[in-house]
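Let us work through a complete example step by step.
Step 1: write down the sequence.
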Amino acid sequence: MLKNVCLGLALAALVVWPTSAQDARTVIGNASAAMGVDKLKTVEYSATGLDFALGQAPNPSSPWPKFVNKSYTRAIDFGTPASRVDRVRLQGENPPRGGGQQPIVGEQPANQTIIVGADTPWVQQLEILMTPHGFLRAAATKNATVETKSVGGKKYAVISFVGDNKAKVNGYVNDRNLVERVETWIDNPFLGDMLFEAIYSDYKDAGGAQFPMHIVQKQGGYPTFDLNVTDVKPNAAVTIQPPQGRGGAGGAAAPAAAANTVPSEKLSDGVYLITGGYAALAIDFKDHITIVEAGQSEARGLAVIAEAKRLIPNKPVKYVVNTHSHIDHSSGLRAVVAEGATILTHQVNKAYLEKTLALPHTLNPDKAQQAGKKPVIEAVGEKKVLTDGTHVVELYHQQNLGHHDGMLIAYLPKEKVLLEADGYNPQAATATPPNPASPYTLNLVDNIQRLRLDVQRIVPVHYPADNRVVTMAELLKWVGRAAPTH
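Step 2: predict the structure and record it as tokens.
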């Protein structure tokens, strides 16, 4: 509610004047001269600060969880254009809260290389284009326009052009001819036409060019980076080579390909495990199908629904259980909305999913957008039992879990099967258990024991790469606990 009120005030404070007589080329030229765009052919800068895991908040009202960047170095070649980021991340939430591969133990190296070519995705190009100097370089080559806006009582010349994805790219230039903000909209399978913002402040001279010493990026309304620049090397000797082996666009395509592969396994009469992406269950009820978990994308959600209908023909999908509202576990729900099925989720997530799944998806219209469908969501409390007298699915709230406040687990008592998400993500069978064990995994064991569930087989939504059967015995061994005695 507070966020909506603040947004309303911000919009009320924004005043737009008719297009200035001063043409866009003049505004771009003045800003480029003031910022030394032509002088800055390359740059390498170092920073410390934070990054945040998009869509991985511990609950729907929290910002994305943070990680500490012990070191951060970025090199940009504006001529190619190309960018390379090398950083070392540390755990930022103590105790761990939310997702994004938490908790990190020790130091985690991370890097990203982008070399823009004819086939480079637009969202990757934006990593360079949305820098202040990259924006002005791009605007100079586009059919840009300019208008004067007042935001919070401060006037800006706003340069705009249309990006490759047909969304506007806006750059806010202040009265010192410095770019303070660049914004655009990109497609997100869960958040729809998602606002992507970059905010620049504390400019200082760097070899005759002006460079911001504070950089904030936001996606989906919350920060994804907050960096304090400690060193700038203008026109450094920058050599950016393509990553070796898998990486870049090739590495990013693998999950999408997996999402469309739908092998399945019969667990018992009328109960099926669907793998090939985020694992799901399909249960044959008397007059309908219930699915547990819809996957990480619309494509995966459609594939899961199609496979469930193939396994259980001539019945509609009535319910789809959502384990929690993290972006990688809820992006498949757009397919569920298109199907017209009811989404079952913990009550913590209901309002958030209703709002998010109704957001416009105009940049890359999906089936729900095309059909004009609205989400139908039913809240689950501490326990809900689905049964037709033959099949039984028990849904429980996984209490006191740092990963997400509104997590559901699904237990099938006849089959003694438990589906869980992000409590236990199995590693290779030969992996050494961590010491100490993840608090998320310990919490899963605690909840199974609290609920007195007789679990023999566990279905992790993040299914093991070797497709092995995961047992309760394996889970207990991983956390160093003995099997309970009855």
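Step 3: interpret the result. Residues 298-311 form the longest helix (14 residues).
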